[in-house]
Amino acid sequence: MKNWKFKMASTILGSTLLLAACGGTDEGGGTEENGSSTAGEVEGSVIGDGSSTVAPILEGIVEEYAGAQPGVQVTVGVSGTGGGFEKFMQGETDFSNASRPIKEEEIAALEEAGIDYTELLLAYDGLSVVVNAENDFVDNLTVDELKKLWVEDGSTKMWSDINPEWPEEEVIFYAPGTASGTYDYFNEVILEEGDIESTATLSEDDNTLVQGIQGDENAIGFFGYAYYIANQDTLKLVPIDGVEPNDETIESGEYAPLSRPLFVYAKNSSMSENEAAYDFMQYTIEHAGEMAQAVGYVALADEEYEEQLAKLEALK
Question: Where is region (Disordered) located (predicted)?
Fold first, then answer.
């Protein structure tokens, strides 16, 4: 396993990310050090899309899978959870990455399109609230303060509105775009279906958010924990109700309400009819825990991964 945590800052890409597994050779039939999910070499192509939050896990897996199965071309776009499901509904992809559970209207659209799918759990994430590294006054926020900050109320938000001891400076907001599962999750547990602050810069590319917050002392934003880990030297993590996201608080649920599961949705027909798609998905589940921990997320328990593999095997 490469040192992905230190590689992340330069390799997490944006909404046009293409991850191609197309290199490496192995005279032993595709069962080199990384190991192949199935015996012997596999050939073919696999296409996925979806969440930028899940992307760091898949980026690492795709690169390592290239060494195990050089005959398989894997391409993964990053259109956000909602954008990925749109492509999934159109039959353009074999799997879709998601940082939230599939919505009822998406389920209905897939049923109408005749696309059966299987939900597979990959890891856990703690949605992280961050401010500029030079911010020396925000050391904690409550859930109520988050709501006061982020819900649109027609006013110009000042830091002093949240705490009179804080500067009378306008708050600069950065948030995931509306096609992002991260936005959906934040909307559900913090905004509670209210409108997000109208001045916020929205982007499905989490790197845009990182760079914006790095560049303004009055900035605040939120995104997946791995993006904080990759940029922790230049961002300041804000505890919520006194609890910071980390492996223990995310896994236990203590970091509430911002802990969440990360998923991949596999197209059943691709898993049963496309050997390459099945092989890659099996490899993904087998390596998701190790890669999740390497890039800054939290792995499932071993028995949970065994359950996901059993669900996948049932599709073969």
Answer: 24-43
Q: What is the extent of the structural domain holding 160?
A: 126-259
Sheet containing strand 219-223, edge to edge, reads 201-203, 172-176, 219-223, 128-132, 235-237
259, 275, 294 - which closes a domain: 259
- Percent of the chain at pLDDT > 70 equals 88
In tens, the pLDDT along 194-243 reads 999 999 999 988 899 999 999 999 999 999 999 999 999 999 999 999 99
pLDDT tens, residue by residue, 7-30: 444 444 433 344 444 444 343 333
Chain centroid to Cα 36, Å, comes to 25
CA nearest neighbour of 184 among 106, 101, 256: 101
Judgement on whether residues 118 and 138 belong to the same structural domain of the protein: no
- Give the Cα separation of 67 and 56 in Å (integer): 18
Strand pairing partners for 259?
126
Q: State the Cα–Cα distance between residues 299 and 261, nearest whole angstrom.
A: 10
One domain for residues 25 and 88: yes
Query: Is 141 a residue whose pLDDT tops 50?
Result: yes
Residues 132 and 255 in one domain: yes
Q: Do 48 and 166 share a domain, yes or no?
A: no
Model confidence at 179, in pLDDT bands (50, 70, 90)? Answer: confident
pTM confidence score: 0.80
Q: Are residues 136 and 253 in the same domain?
A: yes
Average pLDDT over residues 290-307: 94
> Do 189 and 241 form a contact (C-beta atoms < 8 A)?
no
The amino acid at 87? K
Name the domain boundary from 219, 244, 259. 259
pLDDT of residue 173: 98
Count: domains in the chain: 2
